[in-house]
Amino acid sequence: MKTFLDKLLAYFELDHATYDQMRQPVTFTSLPDFSHFTGIEIAVERIEKAIANQEKIVIYGDYDCDGISATTILVYAFKLLNYPVGYYIPSRYIDGYGLNGERVKQFYEKGYQLIITVDNGVSQHQAIDLANSYDIDVIVTDHHQILDHLPAAYAILHPTYSNYGTVVTCGAYVALMLATALLKREERYLVTLAALATMSDMMVLKEYNRAIVKLGSEYLNENQYRALTLLAGEGPYTEDCFSLGIAPKINAIGRMVMTTDINLLVEYLSTNDEAKRQKLYQWIISINQERRATMKDALNNNDEVDLTAPAIVVVTKEKEGLIGLLAAQYLNSYDKPAIVFTASELDADLLKGSARSRAGFNIAKAFQSLADILISYGGHGGAGGCSINKSDLPAFKQRFNALAEQYLLETEHQKTIAITLSEVNWENYQLMREFAPFGHSFPAPYFKLADLHLKNLTFSRDNKHLLTTIDQNIKLVGFNKPASQFNLQATYNFYGRYTLSTYRNATSLQFQVDEIEEV
Fold it and tell me: What is the pTM of this model?
C-alpha cells in the first residue's frame, strides 16, 4: 500500500532526491545575487550620482499589485537611504499602461532629472526618447516581453535581457534586486513584497521564484507586517494569502478608482503611521467590497448572454478594469471562450474588450484572424485584449463564434490523488506543505475521497452546507452543497483540497469539497 508521501511524489512526478532538495530551508542567499543582472552596476552608479548631486528622482510604476509592490520597494529603499523621491502610479483610465509623454513633460516641468520605471518601460520608446530630449535619464526595470528593439534608456534591468537566469521574474523582484544593490543588504519587508507580487503576477514557481515566495511567507509569519496582515486576515500565512487574500484587494483599486488616488496604496504599504494605515485600510476594503458587489450585479443582471452560442460575447456598462474578471467568470461558469466589451472612456464609438479561454481555443490566434476589424489587439493563448468600432461588433460576434465552433475547448481532466477519510489529518497536511509553495505551473494537489455514504455525513443547521467533523479541528466542508442534493442510497466521490481555516485564533484543517460525483 502506498504511503501518503509516495502518492505525493507520484502526483508531482518527483523522486526522493528532488523532494529532499525541495525541503531544504531557503535564505536570501538562495536567490542569485543582484550582480547577475547585467547593467545593475550602471544603474546603481547613476542613482548614487543623483543622490550625491541632490538630483530629483521619480519612480514610475503600474496599477496592478506587481507594479504597486515594485514602486513601494524602491520608495521604501530610498526612505531607508534617507533620500526623498517622488513616485507615480498611473491611472488605468487617465494614463493607461506604461510611461507616457504627458507625464514625462510634467516630470521635466517639476525638475526631475532621473526616472526609474518599475514593471514597465521596455516598450515605452517614445516616452523615453522624449525624456532624453529633456536631458532626463531613464533607468528601466521591467519583466515584460521585449519587442523588436530596446528603448534608448540609460540602463535596463530585465531578467531575460540582463541574463539573470532562465525563469522570468515579476517586476517587483527586479525592483528588489535594485533596492538590495542600493542598500547593500537584505531588507525582509521588501522581500515579502516581492513574494506577494510573484504570486499576484502568476510567475512560474521554479528556482528563485519559488525560493522568494517561500522566503516571503516565512518573513510574513515571523514579522507580522501590519500592512499585509490587515489585508490577509488571520494567519498562519501561506502563499495563498498573497494571491487570494492580499492581491485582489490591491488590484481592486486599479480596477475601480478612476482618479490618481491609486497612489495612496504606496503610502499604505510604506507608512509607519498606524492611524493613517487604518484609514487607508478602510478605504481599500470599501473599494474591494464595491468591486465584489459590482461583479455580482454584472453577472446576475446580464440578459445578453446567449447560452446557445459557441462563445460568450457580451457588452457591459461596467468599468474597463472589471471586464477581464467578468470574462474569466463567464469562461468558468459556461465553459466557453468569453469576451467582454465596454465603451472606451476616451471615445464613445470605441469598444474595449478582454477575452479569456483555455486549451483548444487560442485567443491570440483568434485576434490575428480578426485583425481586419480590430483597431488594436494583443495577448496570448489564454487571455487577451482588443478594441473595435461599435459598428463592427455584429461582424466580430459572428466571426468570433464561428472560430469558437471550429476550435472547441479541450476537456480538462484534473489529476487527482486517491485518499481515504483517515488520510485527512494534520500529519499529512504538514507533509503536503513540504512541497509548497504552490502556484502557477506547480498547483496544490487535488484529492479524491471515494465511496462516501450520506449516513456518514452531517450538514449545517440549515442543511445548506456539507459540514462533517472528521476529528478534533479537522472537518469535511462543502459550501453550497445542501443535504437535498444527496441520495440516501447512493455513494459519492468528493474532489477537493486541504485548506486551513482560522477563526478567533483557532485553526482547523479542512478538506474543502469542490466537486461531488455520484458513483
Answer: 0.93
